[in-house]
Specification:
The structure holds 2 protein chains of 2 kinds. Chain A is α/β, with parallel strands linked by helices. Chain A has a single domain, classed as Rossmann fold (3-Layer(aba) Sandwich). Chain A contains 6 helices and 6 strands, in the order αβαβαβαβαβαβ. Chain A has a 6-stranded parallel sheet, sandwiched between helices. In chain A, α3 packs parallel to α4. The longest helix of chain A has 17 residues. By secondary structure, chain B is an alpha/beta fold. In chain B, 43% of the residues lie in helices and 18% in strands. Chain B is built from 8 helices and 8 strands. In chain B, the strands form 2 sheets. In chain B, strands 2-1-3-4-8-7 form a 6-stranded parallel sheet, sandwiched between helices. In chain B, strands 5-6 form a two-stranded antiparallel sheet. In chain B, a hairpin with a 5-residue loop joins β5 and β6. The longest helix of chain B has 19 residues. The chains are: A alpha/beta, B alpha/beta. The interface between A and B is large, with 34 and 37 residues.
Chain lengths: 172, 193
């Protein structure tokens, strides 16, 4: 799936890749790191990755930024005061550590479901994206092609970031 | 030297056609007030990120010279970007830092750049060359020297605290700044293909 995912992204016009890794999409990062043609920039922080991607967009590219959902917290100011006010789009591929069991938005205080530092952010990842007005889809292998096409269309029309939320087991 | 004088002198020494990313705060407003160009991209918010934007731009536009106008508060806030720039090492990226050891846009509260020499940090990270100057009449030679060798390189200019009176805000809206900058970049790229 990781290679197919990257192929889908390239078919949709994405041609610049940067980010900070997460174990939930390590399969993707492994390919990006191995193959120089992707030009993957391993960023030191998620907001810096968004800014590197913004520079690439100013230079004519259509960027993808990969990050763990913990990095969404680091990225808030870049998203709102760079991407959203300047109309600089990006596809943010964000992992979903600490995903709550079932469909509930609130994470139960079950310290065994994931590493403790991910439990609260995992519980608020969806409402957090809603609050920041970032259109998003949750990775579903059955509909990934349509979902990516639809997100990309929204991104191009709005000139703002969109997100693909990646649960455990999808891109490892 | 006054920062406005330094900013104006440096802006005049950036070669025509170079792409410039200017950090948020008074430095961007001073560049805009001195001489607005569509090849200049002014940051309004997003403190700390100008150098990262410059990095992304330099990587995808390797034929163009990219210049980042930055401040000490900005560099300190986004110091990790110095490592990213050094690691990616785009030869077309030049980083100019106006250092007044203060947050000039919020009332001159002190930063810590008086004790942490930022050009030394950049050099330790792997910038190819760096220089610090303290006098306005050094700017012309320093700018010529800066661009005489491949980057990434940093020129740090010590400036006085205090803001030039009567400097307005950047007038184009952020989406307008994005659109005109992209047109300039792609116009030149399309013409050269």
């Amino acid at each position: 799936m990781p290679q197919r995912f990257l192929d889908l992204l390239e078919a949709l016009g994405y041609n610049f890749f940067t980010g900070v890794p997460c174990s939930l999409f390590e399969g993707v990062t492994r390919i990006l790191d191995r193959e120089p043609r992707y030009g993957y920039v391993s960023a030191v922080r998620e907001d810096s990755a968004l800014a590197i991607a913004a520079g690439a967009h100013l230079g004519g590219r259509q960027p993808v930024v990969l990050m763990q959902n913990s990095g969404l917290g680091v990225s808030v100011n870049a998203i709102v005061s760079l991407n959203q006010i300047y109309g600089i789009p990006a596809l943010i591929v964000v992992s979903w550590r600490g995903q709550p069991a079932g469909s509930g938005e609130q994470a139960p205080q079950d310290w065994r479901m994931d590493a403790p530092e991910h439990i609260i952010m995992g519980g608020v990842t969806r409402p957090f994206l809603d609050l920041l007005k970032i259109p998003f889809a949750v990775f579903d292998p059955a509909t990934i092609e349509q979902d990516l096409a639809s997100l990309t269309q929204t991104m191009r029309e709005t000139r703002k970031p969109v997100a693909l939320v990646v649960p455990k087991g999808m891109l490892q | 030297m006054k920062r406005y004088e330094a900013v104006a002198r440096v802006a005049d020494r950036v070669q025509q056609g170079a792409l410039t990313v200017v950090c948020n705060g008074m430095i961007g407003r001073e560049v805009f007030a001195h001489r607005d160009l569509p090849t200049q991209f002014y940051m309004i918010g997003s403190m700390g990120l100008a150098s990262s934007i410059g990095l992304g731009l330099a990587l995808v536009q390797p034929e163009r010279t990219v210049v980042v106008f930055d401040g000490d508060g900005n560099v300190l806030m986004g110091m990790g970007a110095l490592a990213s720039i050094a690691a990616e090492a785009p030869p077309n990226l030049y980083h100019i830092v106006f250092d007044n050891a203060a947050h000039g846009s919020t009332g001159d509260q002190r930063t810590i750049s008086d004790r942490v020499p930022l050009e030394d940090v950049a050099l330790a990270a792997g910038y190819h060359h760096t220089q610090r100057i303290t006098e306005l009449d050094e700017v012309d030679d320093a700018m010529a020297e800066l661009f005489s060798e491949p980057g990434p390189a940093m020129l740090l200019i010590e400036v006085e605290r205090g803001n030039q009176p009567g400097i307005g805000r950047v007038e184009p809206t952020p989406p307008e700044l994005t659109a005109r900058f992209r047109r300039v970049v792609q116009g030149v790229s399309a013409a050269s293909e």
